[in-house]
Input
Amino acid sequence: MKFKINQILTFFLCSLSFALQAQVITFFADSPQSSYYDAGSAVSTAPSGLEKAGPNMDKIPVEASVQPYEGSNFLRVSWTSATGGSWAASVSAPALALQNISATDVLTFAVYSKTGLGKDSLPSIFFGGAPGAASTGKYAIGAYAGAIPAGIWTQVFVPLSVFFNDPLNKNVDFTHVLTVGFIQGIADGVSHTLFIDDVKTYNSTNIAGLAKPTGLVATGYEKHIDLAWDPASAAQTNTTQIWRSNDQGANYSLTANVATGINFYEDFISTDSGKTLRYKILAASGDGSKSAFSDTASASTKPMSDLDFLDMTQRATFRYFWDFGHPVSGMARERNTSGDVVTTGGSGFGVMGLLAGIQRGYVSRSDGLNRLMKIVTFLGNADRFKGAWPHWMDGRTGKVIPFSDKDNGGDLVETAFMIQGLLTARQFFNGASSDETTLRQKITQLWEDVDWNWYRQNGQNVLYWHWSPNYNFAINLPIRGWNETMIVYILAIASPTHGVPASLYTTGWAGGAYLNGNSPYGYKLDVGPNNGGPLFFAHYSFLGFDPRNKKDAYTNYFIRNKNHTLITRAYCIQNPGNYKGYSDQNWGLTASDDPGGYRTHSPVIQDDNGTITPTAALSSTPYTPSESISALKYFYRNLGVKVWGGMGFYDAFNQDRNWFAMSYLAIDQGPIIDMIENYRTGLLWKNFMLNPEIQPALDNIGFKPDSAATATVETKTANIKLYPNPATNRISFSADFPENDLSSLTLLNGQGQIIRNWKKELMEDRNRKEWSLPVEGLPGGMYFFQARGNQWVITRKIVLFASGF
Output
């Protein structure tokens, strides 16, 4: 009985071994010897010639003069094929083991030529058996590989049906194959060299347990093709290989290996628009196993409009917060190398970025809701200090990670950036479902738990940045303007549970070096440091807080931020430091990575070292749309792959030092997607300002309507007519605006308040090009007529006479 059981077990193990072996059979992957491959042979007959190596000069040389396709080295086959001669270079599996290839269906190997090889110059291929056994016929590699491009590994695939179904091979035993051989093809009398790596056969239906990648999508832009695939496909493997075809799928070459967990790739193409490319990808594991190829996807480069560029930028930047969001908490990592370190303020920016992504259709509303629920649940369980979160946390546990020696407690500024985002989300998810209702309730609880008043440090008339249960207020940093922290005071005054007096806006926020009054480069700055400071001052507090059409006792902040942006651009045009690359299109100074680490850059010579940061210009799009979009196109068109990656524009660059960052930072990526969305639709501004706590706080601070700042963008729509002007009972309006892109028609008084909204007329026919609108019953005076679409605004002054004039 024991003998029989052993027989059964042996049969089972042998069968299992055969089944596993049949999936992938490797003839060459790496050579233990650094100069030749021992499990193989190299023979030649004059006048043909073949380079040989090894102790007996009968082996194929190996080397590693370029990056191997796999492993540490590859075969070097150097030959001259002449009439009347022959040569053959054969490789066997290690230990010269016989292989059963009958259960596999593809022969594959990778080839590389430093100069390129035409398909007719390539050798042929065959299978050899044990000594004395029959070998197959030879088959031209060029029929399956095509021409081999210079300087890139190209994987060749030969269906084994070519061998199995050929009557010439009827005597070949495919269950006992010893070698894969490369043999003389056309006798052209010319010397050639071909590197060969990763020679194997496999069963294309299931390779080493790796599932083939799914969901591959290719999207064409002006100079690159964006590839994305199912994230689950990226999670199972060490790398994803990108294969590209330039000839409509006839031949594919290995383009890139993408690291573990990444499910996107940007393929820059140095050709004119209209180039069509095909792609397929495979998963590769650390042991050299590969999956079957994915389904193919294709796309073409194409000319792009300004809106195309904006969407391209938002779509890629969104990935930082969606695809690269921390898998446990959903929060944004501090930077793309931060591991489990997540950032509170950058995550607040990312929350608003998620809303923009839902608005754009990058993810569904339900998926976005689930991600926000993950974030708010994490925040509810994370370390808090009088309701405030720390600057950094562990994305797995929510435990504080000290930002500096004594900064291991609450950070009120970072908390304000998060609350700004959460309140915007609370209004966005305004549905009646239980899930959206629960989300709103959770956000309200987080908002009401923040004890803003505690951060007055014993009732002072200013807020303080940090508090720690270990060090109390030892850092002792008051929050004063002008800088990026204005939103702290707005929220602290708006808090329904732990608010501070509105007077702190004056004594605290505006209680320091607040006023300016100068006009650098002809642009008036009512508040802020000389030349405005770094541009993030104009962004962080205004991702949700809408500065348009209002002013406090000091300035209109939309105009102030616009002028700040224009001053920065003018400074870069003047370029007093004479740094390489600065121009009217290549501009933008703010805090960012830098050749020396991390540094604040601003438009004064002592704070400028030649480092341009794309977020500076791009996040200013609502203020300076023409100038910012021009900068976006310059970065993309002129610097390309040096500044653009899978998650949008890299953090910074310095052409004077030939330095280009490969980093992404949450606090720089967030304002890009958020402020572009505010330029396009005002989505985040609208939802934040709809929170019922905000307007009363602004009223208490002393904000008043101000019609001086009207729209985020003045449309370039042609043939705008508004008549008669002056008018009495009705006004007529016509313009060539895009079809289905008129969202509102309103009349504003001199204080910027809407006093007539023609909703009824708009509902009747949104596609109309000409309108006759009633204005009777209004007192005489100057008004502002405003028409809005999704990407444009028209604002025109009009004088009305009282009825019966």
Notes: The chain is about 25% helix and 25% strand.
